[in-house]
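Box S2. Input/output pair 1.
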Amino acid sequence: MTFFSLLIGTFTLRPYVFVFLLAFWFCAQRLLGWRRTGLFFLVTWLTAFLCEFSSVRTGIPFGWYFYTEATAGQELFIAGVPFFDSLSFTFLLYASYCLALLYLLPARASGDPAPVNLFQRSTWPALMFHAEVRTSWPVLKLTVLFFTFIDIIIDPVALRGERWFLGKIYYYPDPGVYYGVPVANFLGWAVVGLIALSGYFLLDRRLSPPSGHVHGADQVMTGNVLLGCGLYYGVLAFNLAVTFWIGEPQLGMTGLLIFVPLTALFLLRLLGRLPVPLPQPLRQNSKGPSPPLR
């Protein structure tokens, strides 16, 4: 088959992946701008592909696993790795990044006590998109944590792909203790997130500051950050729904128990009930009076 035929086959076999991918491009360009979005995509995709290429040959960093290539004549593979699989890391890392930003970006105080109403935008913290914070070490660590967390839901249900429309696309020669998934796999996800986001942060710092009302550093970016958070919970809901649909209630309940505390914290932050201190680099670099932060 030709390259384009295989690419079309990739789209038709995995339409849900490309729905999430389109959502990523829509959300990310609003927050980061097109240039940064393109760099985020390229750095993450390349990192994920190289790590998968390595792991199926050396076991590093995900541990040993193998693709069955049952769909090798129907979708695009690159050096034995399904094209769609590496693409998935891009929107998952971006969604995790936005969730970390929600917790750690400084917020401009309104001056009045916030009403307890999630459906009023005035209730939400007015998040400021400061470069010193958005590329900081705390954001990197929290993003990697959220990125690894979501694979706790994704990988076990993907491993059971023969029971839903994904298909049996890979297997572990030595099944792990967590619903057949080895611990090394989750460590591999942390490695991918750490390398990819560190690389993107280096590039972000070298670019000129964002400008304009869409992604300006001095503009309130709460809505655009929340779009990325919505992508995170959209992927989470999709995988949990499939988990229960294929008859894995224990696995589904495990996922719910993991994410209920995180969701509670998410709602508290959205209500402005979780104060975030101003990071030290921002204190040192700030000039003149600045609005109070909460």
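Box S3. Input/output pair 2.
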Amino acid sequence: MSHTVRRAVLVAAIGLPCPYCGRAMIEPEHSPSRDHIRSRKRRGTLGDSSNRAIVCWPCNSHKGEWSLERWANRLQRDGDQRADHVAAFLATLASAGRR
């Protein structure tokens, strides 16, 4: 996927809810970014489109290299409101056969 196409995907996501927190992805505070659901460090592949999600920058930054499952557990343990959104997103991935 070319840089132009990737940028267009991010621009198209502006205003949509982040699947990790539910807040609208608006610039500059919650601008959209691409998250690798499974980081390369965790055996994810960078070119696999099923390994990518468009999420807001703060959530992507906070998740870092954690797997989505481990991050969800951490959010749940910490009482973070994003835990329910991430759990719902994981369920969506599972039902679509992406996990």
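Caption for Box S3: The chain has one domain: 3-95. Strands lie at 32-36, 52-56.
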